[in-house]
Design goal:
Structural class of chain A: alpha/beta
Organism (chains A, B): Christensenella hongkongensis
Pfam family, one (chains A, B): PPK2
CATH topology of the largest domain in chain A: Rossmann fold
Oligomer: homodimer
Distance between the termini of chain A: 45 Å
Number of domains of chain A: 2
CATH superfamily of the largest domain in chain A: P-loop containing nucleotide triphosphate hydrolases
CATH class of the largest domain in chain A: Alpha Beta
Protein name (chains A, B): Polyphosphate kinase-2-related domain-containing protein
GO molecular function, one term (chains A, B): polyphosphate:AMP phosphotransferase activity
Shape of chain A: elongated
Largest interface: A-B, 46 and 46 residues
Largest sheet of chain A: 5 strands, parallel
Strand content of chain A: 5-15%
């Protein structure tokens, strides 16, 4: 892509002045409309050293109200960043609806920092895939992603390095390595081209810009941004197609394993008190030992709990957690989303809560809320829920490739057992806090939930993150089965 | 304090069983009441290696609903933690109202990690002072802080190290340094005692516990926690004293400089267009150069903007920001607090937004909202606002000692000028978004705001973070004065 750039493009002061004069107010007004329309925008600048990325960000933000954007200047990852999936540090930064994030280097930065070191092409395939998935999920959620690659040739880069070096106050910004890297300019262009092509998608295309002339690059980038914001606003204003009732339309992108339906589960399975006590103790001891090994091997474990109301998730989690060292796990309770969470893509809060390598992350309800409560209650448009099955598989695949052992437990009880437990809760003082009107309302939608659960099994039962249905009519049986499932899989992994 | 502990205290299985049986459900019930009463709780455990802190956290949380607490296992700070005030990483973690934070090592951890290295006693005075201030501010805000120091003697510690070493799965948890440190056990006890005494306050007292016997320490700590939660609930239930209208009652804890009142400012000061253009350009150039020097010297700059509505904060900030490299500053806009912000102490969101060393942090409205809008609108009880003057000074003093250059600008216009600008905004399409009903309502309370501003000057004009009143009747004059103030102070500092 870079070869096609005409690096001699220039604008004279006279040509530039009227363009700049019109663009400034236009950008200012557009930002206000973007805020009102609640469109989240990501603008990122990549390119070789001294291509003018920083200066571009500096001049761009002068036209924006500071209350509406954040600038990120991406540096090398910190040690903590290396203990979570590599994209997590960027996913956590995604702007809220109506806000802008402006990047001076972004998730593509790693590619450049590695320039000059020996790196196999193949190694990056995975990163590019994950970037494309990440960007596609965001644009599907309404994010606008504008990617600019500022390019200068070797001669121009050398000239700029020398100018920086000459001025006392900027001389620290260039070092010997920069000058040494000049030799690899051609190679840099080649690997940049690979990157641009591998991540040049229809939903987030690259815009390479010849950056030799400051006025030219500024006029080009600013009018491109203005045009893109305008067209995003226009699309938003068009009436969306009428949404119909829910009917799953999922194009599976992963190999899906068959799974029993809720109706096929044998909920009468039980275990006697004596046997339970004995097995619980021995299983907990085993899990504790395994935690130690996982910690040393730096393998993270993700445990997702879903299930009917009153199916015993809390008690089950407690039996798992009490086997673990508190320094090595976290339980993340998932309640109704806060306003802050509602103004981000739904996976945002889970990206933030991922455990570090070697740690257990237990989720008490999960990202599956998207295809369960959000589907049943109609909180989310049908089309977005249909996309979610695949998005969730992609999210879990990323966790799997990161090295995580993933457990997804569905705790199942039948309607009669639920009624019995609800009533028991209402009649036991220390359990009353556990039962609300909401629970009774959910009960009325039993069949809708069951259909949603069966679809969830059908579309998200992957080989890298399979579901385990836990028959929870008897709490003791459920706990033993959960622990045994975990221990078997972890032992297999170690 | 540690010498008074009877390290031989033990509980037999028979003595312990009934106590434990009663304490479990009591803690469970109390946590639910704490959540309902929205009391934020911090429970922290310190003590020498192998004293049983981790095991204590493990057994404590079994009685709590995971949705109500977070466990922190404090490790050495990461590089990013070293570029903000040292307490910031803990302040950011403070639990929301009604939630618990449980610490296995906390902000006291540094003290222990330094054990065995040569450290002057005096060096810690500042840390202890800052800890005491931090804890006092939190307890004044309704936080309950429970601090337990688990203590074992040298013999016991050695025994535990050897046991850990013997078992394969735990052997990695002790190393040569641990055994070597055994020699310094007496010294450790002495420095621990210094720390305990220096931070043993009425609002957050230490509770040293003999930790030789697991049953004894558990029974002691658990019943102490239950008692404390209960008494906090009781205090909360008592009717608070009737709050009266606002009258500042401030005990200044810092040396305060005199400051002009709003009425004494000459708001007719102005500057001609030509002169303005010339001086602006040269001042911006100067500031850019200074930013470079500050960056290299790792000196952070905090700029707090306050002022009347329509006084020109936005345009002023833009003139400062456009002089700076975007990679070295952030503008934090302060709007009405989100629900998440409302359920934390008011400084929480500012702790999170502090710049890194060498960077500029520009705040478009600030922590002074506490003593301005919150006071005028009656959003916050009078007693808490009175405490805020001092809390803010303490917060700024911490920033000062961290090394920050602090600017506090009040942009002042008079009522006529404000009316003129409001009307201009309403009549200019690209400015209409800047004016809301809220602005007109605030205008009706002009005199109340003026009184609040004058008190703010009076009680927070410290020598380490002085106010600069910017006469902003003429925007050009205001911008030049702001830039000149900054440049003079930064040059003086460098």
């Amino acid at each position: 892509m870079l070869k096609e750039l005409d690096l001699t493009r220039k604008l004279s002061k006279e040509e530039y002045a009227p363009i700049a004069e019109a663009l400034g107010p236009r950008l200012t007004m557009l930002q206000q409309r973007i805020i009102q329309a609640k469109i989240p925008v990501i603008i990122l600048f990549e390119g070789p050293s001294a291509a003018g990325k920083g200066a571009m960000v500096n001049s761009l933000i002068l036209h924006f109200d500071a209350r509406g954007f954040t600038v990120f200047n991406t540096q090398d990852p910190e040690p903590g960043d290396l203990r979570v999936p590599w994209l997590a540090r960027f996913a956590k930064q995604m702007p809220a609806y109506g806000r802008m994030a402006i990047y001076d280097r972004s998730w593509y930065g790693g590619w450049f920092r590695r320039f000059g070191r020996k790196t196999g092409k193949g190694k990056y395939t995975r990163y590019f895939e994950e970037i494309n998935t990440f960007e596609r999920q965001l644009t599907d959620d309404g994010y606008l992603i504008l990617k600019y690659f500022l390019y200068i040739d070797k001669k121009e880069q050398k000239k700029r390095f020398e100018k920086l070096k000459r001025v006392k106050s900027t001389s620290w910004r260039v070092n010997k390595a920069d000058f040494k890297n000049l030799k690899f300019h051609k190679e840099l262009m080649e690997i940049s081209d690979q990157m641009l092509e591998a991540t040049n998608t229809s939903y987030a295309p690259w815009r390479p810009v010849a950056a030799t002339d400051k006025r030219y690059v500024r006029a080009t980038v600013f009018s491109s941004i203005a045009d893109e914001l305008e067209s995003a606003l226009k699309i938003r204003e068009e009436k969306p197609a009428q949404e119909t009732d829910f009917a799953p339309q999922v194009k599976p992108c992963f190999h899906l394993l068959p799974h029993k339906t809720i109706e096929e589960l044998d909920l009468t399975k039980a275990i006697a008190e004596e046997e339970y006590k004995e097995r619980l103790k021995s299983l907990q001891k085993k899990l504790f030992k395994l935690q130690n090994k996982l910690y040393l091997a730096k393998i993270p474990v993700i445990i997702a709990y879903e299930g009917n109301d009153a199916a015993g998730k809390g008690g089950n989690i407690r039996r798992v957690a009490s086997a673990l060292d508190a320094r090595g796990y976290s339980v993340t309770p998932i309640a109704a989303p806060t306003p802050d969470e509602l103004s981000h893509q739904y996976l945002w809060r889970f990206w933030k809560a991922l455990p570090r390598t070697g740690h257990f992350g237990i989720f008490d309800r999960t990202w599956y809320g998207r295809v369960l409560v959000e589907r049943v209650e109609g909180f989310t448009p049908v089309s977005r829920i249909n996309q979610a099955y695949n998005e969730i598989n992609e999210f879990e695949y990323m966790l799997h490739r990161w090295g995580a052992v993933i457990f997804k437990f569905w705790l199942a009880i039948d309607q009669d057992e639920q009624l019995r437990r609800f009533e028991e809760r209402e009649n036991t003082p220390e359990k009353q806090w556990k039962i609300t009107q909401e629970d009774w309302r959910n009960r009325d939608k039993w069949n809708l939930y069951t259909a949603a659960v069966n679809d969830m099994f059908r579309y998200t039962n992957t080989d890298f993150a399979p579901w385990t249905a836990i028959e929870a009519g008897d709490k003791r049986y459920a706990r033993i089965k959960t622990l045994e499932t975990m221990i078997t899989a972890i032992e297999k992994r170690l």
